[in-house]
Amino acid sequence: MRPLWHTFESSLQVYLRSSIDGAEDSYDGRYDSDGEEKSLDTFVIQLFEFLSTIVSSRRLSKTIAGNVRELVYQTVAFLQITEQQVHTWSMDVNQFVADEDEGSYSCRISGILLLEEVINTFGSEGINAVVDAAGKRFQESQRENSASSLSWWRLREAVLFTLASLSDQLVEAEDLRIDPANLAKFIEQLIMEDTGIGYHECPFLYARIFTAVAKFSSVINAGILEHFLNAAVRAITMDVPPPVKVGACRALLQLLPDMNSSVILPQIMNLFSSLTDLLRQATDETLVLVLETLQQAIKAGHEASASIESIISPVILNVWVAHISDPFMSIDVIDVLEAIKNSPGCLHPLTSRILPFIGPILNKPHQQPEGLASGSLDLLTMLLKGAPSDIVKTAYDFCFAAVIRIVLHSEDHGELQNATECLAAFISSGRQELLTWSGDPGFTMRSLLDATSRLLNPDLEGSGSLFAGKYILQLILHLPSEMAPHVQDLVAALVRRLQSAEILALKGSLLLIFARLVHMSYPNVDQFINLLVSIPADGHENSFTYVMTEWTKQQGEIQSAYQIKVTTSALALLLSTRHSEFAKVNVPGSPIQSNGGITTRSKARSAPEQWTIIPLPMKILALLADTLIEIQEQVLSNEDEDSEWEEVHEGDAKAEKDLLRSAGTSQFSKPTYDQLEAMARFENQDDEVDDHLLGTDPLNEINLASYVADFLLKFSSEDRPLFDNLCQGLTNAQRNVIHMALNR
């Protein structure tokens, strides 16, 4: 440790002279013969990573335990902005924003990771070491300022950067040597110390002050927050260095949602005007930040937004057109337009502005620049979400026929996906009225069915059908009587599409339709089973055998709370019939463990994964038990994120009760796709979208744990010998959770 510690301390002095002050060679941009960078920054990063490894090791951390405060104190000095960063960020504000994002990596980020490891390992001692080091370095910066040092602000900025980066740990700490009130005073002293300096004098320090205010807004005095809100608004309206505007935007992002409207409204018009001007100048990363800030300003302005909609909306639409080929940016812009839509008095003027613009685009999609038709469909879907009938009717008149044509004829998968979601939104918002608007309900229904046929065509590539399930779900939820005569054809088409599907998300969405049809057939679920048995399926005895084999295999991959509720409860309904067909179906149970040794790729190809084969009723019971286990794990992890699963098994009666009260909101990660647009839209898709389309479905209100537990109790009491026989094929964990459910 002595040589390492000596290297650490002496390296700081070299780093200060070379990288931070720029007085000596920092070896930036030089590489060895292997292509590895030889800069001083790279060396310091590796030094931090080495120290992090020591700190995180239970055995090795003891060697450094006596010097935690000194380690933190020295590390804070390493986190100062380098001369190269000052030059780069002054020339390119986009690089400043990019380097500040969590995804970037640098000496500063590596140092923060070391400090996080110190806190994780040493707990309150580590947190207090951070606070003490920040206080000492702050005092040093004061002395440097008094001595007229030109670089005094760097150490002050490093202190604020350190505290802001560790704000979550500091705010949540329960055993700080200083109480939360004193911590707040300490932070307030730091941020108020330099409010008198000019924006141009220390732009990066001012940017960091704004960021620190945002990070500690939950503990800072309301009067000080109001002061910095006003300062941030002024900074955006003034001619100040771009980094200051970046810091001001970050502060507004955090402060606007929670600030009293009486503070915001007097300045909101100036803020709208300034942010709109910034939109015209911003590019790349700064544009995203300005859009996010504008979105929060619109939400905070609320009633005031109507008076400026005519100014803001055209500018935002121009930004949208300019960045239409970037699906991530397009989504950010649409989020801002949605905030305008949801503001009082803005929906109708915004609709009048958008529909005449996108109508001609959708009517001639092949003549548009790449991405414009697809993006216009996204924009239309946003307008339709939760819209009143008159808006939906207007959108129908402008665009419905064009959307149908795109679904029927487009070969562009992005267009097909967006058009499918758009049709789902039309049905969800228009419902039965939708059929009457053309004057010929039969024609409209045929158009919807034609779209269904195209989307379920087994020859259509899976990416094009990606949202077919979401669309068909709206058809059977909102137009059930019109769909009833077509159920047999629909089921046959679903089976063919499922057999040709390769994308897991598509399989899951199609299986969801089968599950919803099971619910809709209740209490005559056996009739739905008979329907499946009557429909042939290539390579299988019938569609029931195929669908249940695929369903039980994919159930663990089903995503979203709604889908899990519907599919799991549908499996219970199917099992409750004890239909004679169940006895004829065997499905994959669990993977068979190999005899040992490393599974190489060649071995995997020559000997693919083997599964046990078990009766279908046993597999369904196992899946129901797995659902309870999943909910249990979720409940217990929420109760104590730090507790180990082994400790839980010793028995927690309260957790068992919580299990049966849980709503079953376990989340599953979404798959990724090669198509950039699909990836962008899946990453930005959240429960709000599903809430809009599925909020009226009563199955969304199922308490899954209670539902499964009630089913198990009823099923076991109706046929105990069958139940006990099925349980014999389950794992110990599955039997234990079923026993717990039966004895609650």
From TrEMBL:
Domain Importin-9 central HEAT repeats: 68-306
Domain Importin-7/11-like TPR repeats per the UniProt entry, residue ranges: 352-712
Keyword Protein transport: yes
Species assigned in the record: Arabidopsis thaliana (Mouse-ear cress)
Lineage: Eukaryota, Viridiplantae, Streptophyta, Embryophyta, Tracheophyta
Pfam family, one: TPR_IPO11
Coiled-coil intervals, chain numbering: none
One BP annotation, GO: protein transport
Keywords: Protein transport, Transport
Name of the featured protein: ARM repeat superfamily protein
